[in-house]
Amino acid sequence: MGCGSSLPDRDSRQLGRPNSENGGGQDAKNLRVKLVLLGDSGVGKSCIVLRFVRGQFDPTSKVTVGASFLSQTIALQDSTTVKFEIWDTAGQERYAALAPLYYRGAAVAVIVYDITSPESFSKAQYWVKELQKHGSPDIVMALVGNKADLLEKREVAVQDGTDYAEKNDMFFIETSAKTADNINELFEEIAKRLPRPSVS
Amino acid sequence: MAHFSFNLLHSLEPKRDSYGFALRPQYAQTYREYSSIYKEEEDERSDKWSDFLEQVAESSEPTSENEHKDTLKAEPESNEVREERNPHKLSNGDDSSGRQFSELEEETIVVRKSAEGNEIIEETIQDRVSKGGDSSDRTTSGGTEIKEGTSPGRVSEGDDSSGRNFICYSATGNNSGKEQHHSEERKTCEVQRWAEIRPSLITIEEIFSSRIKKGKQMKGGKINGINVHLPSIEESEPVDDGINGSRAENALVDQNLPELFSRWKELESLVQGGVPKDLRGEVWQAFVGVKKRRVESYYEDLLARDESEEQDVSSAAFGKWKKQIEKDLPRTFPGHPALDENGRNSLRRLLLAYARHNPEVGYCQAMNFFAGLLLLLMPEENAFWAFAGIIDEYFAGYYTEDMIESQVDQLIFEELMRERFPKLVNHLDYLGVQVAWISGSWFLSIFVNIIPWESVLRVWDVLLFEGNRVMLFRTALALMELYGPALVTTKDAGDAITLFQSLVGSTFDSSQLVFTACMGYLAVTEARLKELREKHLPSVLDVIEERSKKGRAWKDSKGLASKLYSFKHDPGSLEEERILTEGSDTVADGNVQLESHSSNLDEMLNSLNVDSEVGSLPHLQEQVVWLKVELCRLMEEKRSAILRAEELETALMEMVKEDNRLQLSARVEQLEQEVAELQQVIADKKEQEAAMLQVLVRLEQDQKVTEDARRRSEQDLAAHKFEVHVLQEKYDKAMQSIAEMQKRVVMAESMLEATLQYESGQSKALSSPRTGRVQSPRFENPTRKVSLLSFGLGWRDKNKGKPNAEESSESLHDHSSPRKESDNQ
Q1: Which is nearest to B424 in space by CA: B382, B371, B479, B470?
Q2: Which of A10, B484, B634, B777 has the fewest Cβ atoms within 10 Å of its own Cβ atom?
């Protein structure tokens, strides 16, 4: 698959540290987060992940079969490091039958639609409801409108995304995997919203 | 064009492998190292397969007479296709390089598709017009959209498949103009898109077609009255007689042909060693039974049907599939040279035809890769029937809307993993990793885009040969065996999965993978899998049923089952939830939590199972079974290790040969130089020889001249001798004449003296007696004078040739005159 990975990309700050969830002290905390991407086929889920993990955009990415895995670690302002374990799922409708395998136990769900496709926005709403029914109760959910660079072809208004996200207690952001707009911001915002193990 | 691009690709860093598929940069080095190994293996297996096919052809010719007749009958139809392929085969014969043949094969595909260029353009236009506003990706340009009225043959009642059959008939029964157009299109398609496999593979096809025949009979029994379109009517469950684990083997036993059975065993060994590139497309068709499955004109009819002819319900689904297919076409092996516009059009047609053929499946992502792969190996319609066989039978229920069989297989695989690799699975549980996260995409993609292409093709060789999914499980277990130990050292779920994916993606040693899979897991059989499927199917159905229901009451009643399912397949999530809740995490606490999970499971099981006493006995039995399985596994591992040792030994010998080859090549170069030098020497000597020949020619000429001179000399000498002889004779005669003349002279002198004495006497005597005697001496004197003159003339004439005759006549005259004188005396 195009999303296959080589050795894990590690943040330089994490080198030499024990890879453990046990925080050594108040100054540094390491989080491991299982994150699942859901959304209609062709909206750009795999491209978002590839841009985030490798900084690449591949216009000829392959169809995702089942799910593919990539991981990436980021550092926050308060010295917390967050390691995302990202499951990028297949978007065709019938693969919804397999989605529970990947979103069950996930701490974060990123639900992606394409701003040029109202159909994909409807599908995104389906996934929000699905997760509210069967997902973890305290899952962090993000609504992402991708392909924001195709402004001239927009068919889903920003306000529609914003309203739906507010109504469902999600945060909303529009991105472009092609131009890298808001990709890192998406994951940083997710990291900020993660519950901390302990508040000192 | 393809050939040219391949040349460029070969000169650069390899970004694509020899099949044209994308190669990731981090694997380029490994691939280059294995390229030479692949080539050697390819040469070896080509030889083995050639020998095998020759033996089969010799021993099985009588039984395949009918097939040959069928081939002859079919020949006129596919004549052009055969002609088109002949240069292909000739080229293959000239060059044994599999890679070049692969390029030529792809080039042929390209050529064939470009030949269809005009029709494809027309079809594309038609598709655009018919789609109208359905396509959000494309902009329809030109032409007015014409909507045709509902077909009179359209049927909205009854069985969907029978309705489709009616539609097939009515499609051909439309107006004559349209019919002519379709018939023309069909003729062209038949010529260009369907081809028979080569005769040497007919026997193999015959063997593997027997298992399809059974399927047809069973299906025929279930569905009455529709015999023509049997292949289009597929059961949701696979028709599987493989009690022995393989349909082909079972078929052979039923046929009671011991010779064929031994051939089958030999063929199995060859298949596990890999099918040669130039045979693969046709061998796969034989394994799937493409020819047996085919119904003539069926594929063209599927393509010819208009969207408006679909039933309302299936029309909506079909539109969805069509849209999805359009999305996925450019994302199927992107950049592959064979999947240009023409290749993509073939892929579209194949997938759309299949969606109509089997609406229970329609189109599912992953199928695009299988269809693309088959199109690289065989003509379009052949690929369609191979594809239908794989999806309808090998993977029945896998790609339907609910993907039931796919989920069941993952539960089965997890159970097998716990049996074979308990430590690894325990470690994964500890990390919170589910087996199905890793293996799920393996099974759905049949390892396409998972492992390197050489290995994918090797796995598919065995999979298609066996006729079931056993090889899928064995390959997955082999990958776990090869790379599982590396995971046991990881402490993080992300690192474990990332490392494992990287290792799996580097499985370039295709022989190791296939042999480990085939030899190491003989206990994984089709019969075993069937049992496990029956065991795990209910739980999958329950989950699906729960999801489809929305009522709370139903949910509550199934709550326990859901929790059990959740715990079984996602223990990590519960663990993570507890960790987050409790807020602290230590190794000791982890152990406690694991125990608490275990106790929870026990509670659930106790609540489900009333008789707790009975549980101990099955537990012991399970332990016994587990121990037996472990023993079998160890024995198989030993066997596998021995096999691996043999492989290494073979590789070592090959390396030794390779080293020797280098020396030999150096010697060959030296010998070639020596040969060149010798050739120069020979050339020089030839020149000398030519010069000497010229000299000899001259000498011969001189000899001839000398010889002639000598002959003339001899002739002259002979002549001289003759003359000398003649002269000698004349001299002798002359001496004799002289002697005689001397005698005459003496006599004359005597007579003269007498006469003188007489005259002196008579001068004294009378006159009358003396006068008469004087006259007689005068008469004699002229005679003497004449003879003297003639004698003198004779001496003069001796110097001339002609006077010799006169001389001889004179001598005769002289000879006669002495006689007269003697007479006178």
Answers
A1: B479
A2: B634
